[in-house]
Design goal:
single chain; about 190 residues; alpha+beta; Chalcone isomerase; 7-stranded antiparallel sheet; 6 helices; globular
């Protein structure tokens, strides 16, 4: 009887652990996100740091968990990056500069073919003042492109798998914005 109870408890722990939320830097990343009949699960999370500032907490959501960065960059399937701003140091202008720098690294300084799309994406972060607590969700939707939301309000839709690859390369390329953040998002 004790053996059966122990097995039952172990099963429950495994079942709930597979759908666990994650709390980092005071931000709780939900186990799942849903939008437009698409449900994705938390792959991993981390904190974007620069110097001694914790700029944002990020979560990666996918259909099935993976630790393969190249697969994440190249996949033509739903994926979401969820960024919660955790520092008052972040502003529209320095967020825009960081995104520009990220695209340069991700594309190995070949931003020309994507310049119009990059500028449109950066303008997403210039529409309103960015403040601590803001939540950005960057959804890749196959056939539609990148849909960017700020506090659940759609800000822009930018088409193209090519753009998605460059954007997700900011976090998952060989030269990511933050190596520790990359590891956390990959669940490592």
């Amino acid at each position: 009887m004790k053996k059966n109870l122990l097995l039952f408890c172990l099963f429950i722990l495994i079942a709930f652990g597979a759908e666990a939320q994650l709390t980092l830097n005071g931000v709780t990343l939900p186990a799942k996100v849903n939008k437009d009949n698409t449900e994705l699960i938390l792959n991993g999370g981390g904190i974007r740091k620069k110097l001694f500032f914790k700029l944002y907490t990020a979560g990666l959501y996918v259909q099935s968990k993976t630790n393969n960065a190249n697969d994440l960059i190249n996949a033509d399937k739903p994926e979401v990056m969820r960024l919660t701003i955790t520092s008052s140091v972040i502003s529209s202008s320095n967020m825009s500069e960081a995104i520009e720098e990220g695209f340069k690294k991700s594309t190995k300084d070949n931003t020309g073919p994507l310049r119009v799309k990059i500028d449109e994406f950066i303008n997403t972060f210039k529409k309103d003042v960015i403040k601590e607590g803001d939540v950005f969700e960057i959804w890749y939707v196959p056939g539609q492109g990148i849909k960017s939301y700020k506090n659940d309000k759609l800000q822009s839709t930018i088409p193209g798998l090519d753009f998605k690859k460059a954007l997700f390369g900011i976090w998952f390329s060989d030269t990511p914005a933050d190596e520790d953040l990359k590891k956390g998002l990959l669940g490592q």
